[in-house]
Amino acid sequence: MHLAQLNIAKAKYSLESTEIKEFVDNLDPVNRIAESSSGFIWRLKDDSGNATEIQAFSDPNIIVNMSVWDSVDALKNFMFRTHHKDFLSRKKEWFFEIPEDTYVLWWIPVGHIPSLEEAVEKLEYLRSNGETPKAFSFKCNFSATEFILSNT
Predict the structure, then answer these.
(1) pLDDT in tens, 38-94
(2) Domains of the chain by residue range
(3) Reported CATH class of domain 2-150
(4) Which residues, in sequence order, are bridge partners of residue 68?
């Protein structure tokens, strides 16, 4: 099994504005770090190489990031032990706080590339049902085995 993740953020500013320029200017370098990280499998991107123009929600200010990793640890290592953490710590400068869950993790079969619709469904499932082996966060961190057992 591989781990899929979706995270969303609602931008305080237009992505063309000077207030969010540092974030936007670092998308490509941070994405290159992700793609070269141990355990990275795939990430959602459009023709520009980013996912900032991909709309998954009716609010055009909500941007998405979705990727697949070979393990929870691989994703955590990228998020918290690379240059990515520098931008994660500054999230409040550029994005509104959303009262609901803003990210979701779920297990997928090896070779499966999740659709954006699947990812949004997982986020909505987490928001409605809380943490389960079908949709969870780093707080509960259900294993692939727990996911498999929950589906038998």
Answers:
(1) 999 999 998 888 888 899 999 999 999 999 999 999 999 999 998 888 888 899 999
(2) 2-150
(3) alpha beta
(4) 4, 42
Report d(CA 96, CA 141) in Å as an integer. 25
In sign, the C-alpha dihedral spanning 41, 47, 52, 56 is: negative
Residues 6+ away with beta carbon under 8 Å from 120: 6, 56, 57
Number of residues in the chain: 152
The answer to whether 65 and 10 are in contact (CB under 8 A) is no
| Torsion of Cα atoms, 38 then 109 then 114 then 119, to 10° | -100
| Tokens found for residue 13 | 């500013």
Contacts by 100-104, CB closer than 8 A, 24 or more apart = 100/127, 101/126, 101/127, 101/137, 102/7, 102/8, 102/9, 103/5, 103/6, 103/7, 103/8, 103/137, 104/5, 104/6, 104/7, 104/135, 104/136, 104/137
Does this model's pTM top 0.90? My answer is yes
